[in-house]
Design goal:
- The structure holds two protein chains of two kinds.
- Chain A is mainly beta.
- Chain A is 0% helix and 42% strand.
- In chain A, the strands form two sheets. In chain A, strands 1, 3, 4, 7, 8 and 9 form a six-stranded mixed beta sheet that branches.
- In chain A, strand 7 and strand 8 form a beta hairpin.
- Chain A starts with 8 loop residues before the first strand and ends with a strand.
- Classes of the chains: A mainly beta, B mainly beta.
- Chains A and B meet through strand 3, strand 7 and strand 8 of A and strand 5, strand 6 and strand 10 of B.
Chain lengths: 109, 121
């Protein structure tokens, strides 16, 4: 159960796009389409942004886009806004009723 | 409105035990799996444990296996985490999270506000 690998930080100017990678193994990210992404602002609980690799919960802007290739999942945020500045975590089902989180990425706008 | 309220946190000495509770409301509790996730202050998220709707399927992170026990009481709309043999590495905010289906494998969608557990002498 090793943590999924994310870049520690990412940044972009308002209106630009940023992509965050999430690298695991064939036992987690590559083996299941149960990858989710959470946004966390300081002092707040995480908020679900993407589930099952590409799906957005109602209320999440379509500026947030999820994808996966092999053992790496990605979250792209387009049209960056100031409110997108937060920590982002990926997570994946890892089999045997277990989950694993990514190391987290701090996005600066 | 989904509400998850954690309780039972606080300061505990190394080697001792603590039991966390999560009171759920705003949804049909026994229709969903539930999870515990923790976050050491200033650090990243770590999944701790998950339990299916009927307690038939349970999983633990390697870091807590054999020390922590997850359980639920569907009649009381409550989730629990019994934590034994606590050490300093267990110091964290503990979040209760609601699954999106009956099964552990599916994503979790709503989170509580978290409760702090501090393990220190």
């Amino acid at each position: 159960q090793s943590a999924l690998t994310q870049p520690p930080s990412a940044s972009g100017s308002p209106g630009q796009s940023v992509t965050i990678s999430c690298t695991g193994t064939s036992s987690d990210v590559g083996g299941y389409n149960y990858v989710s992404w959470f946004q966390q602002h300081p002092g707040k609980a995480p908020k679900l942004m993407i589930y099952e690799v590409t799906k957005r919960p109602s209320g999440v802007p379509d500026r947030f886009f999820g994808s996966k290739s092999g053992n790496t999942a990605s979250l792209t945020v387009s049209g960056l806004q100031a409110e997108d500045e937060a920590d982002y975590y990926c997570t994946s089902y890892a089999g045997s009723h277990t989950y694993v989180f990514g190391t987290g990425t701090n996005v600066t706008v | 409105e989904v509400q998850l309220v954690e309780s039972g946190g606080g300061l505990v000495q190394p080697g001792r035990s603590l039991r966390l509770s999560c009171a759920a409301s705003g949804f049909t509790f026994d229709d969903y799996a539930m999870h515990w996730v923790r976050q050491p202050p200033g650090k990243g998220l770590e999944w701790v444990s998950g339990i299916s709707w009927n307690s038939g399927n349970i999983g633990y992170a390697d870091s807590v296996k054999g020390r922590f026990t997850i359980s639920r009481d569907n009649a009381k709309n409550s989730l629990y985490l019994q934590m034994n043999s606590l050490n300093a590495e267990d110091t964290a905010f503990y979040y209760c999270a609601k699954g999106s289906t009956t099964m552990v494998r599916h994503h979790f969608d709503y989170w509580g506000q978290g409760i702090l557990v501090t393990v220190s002498s």
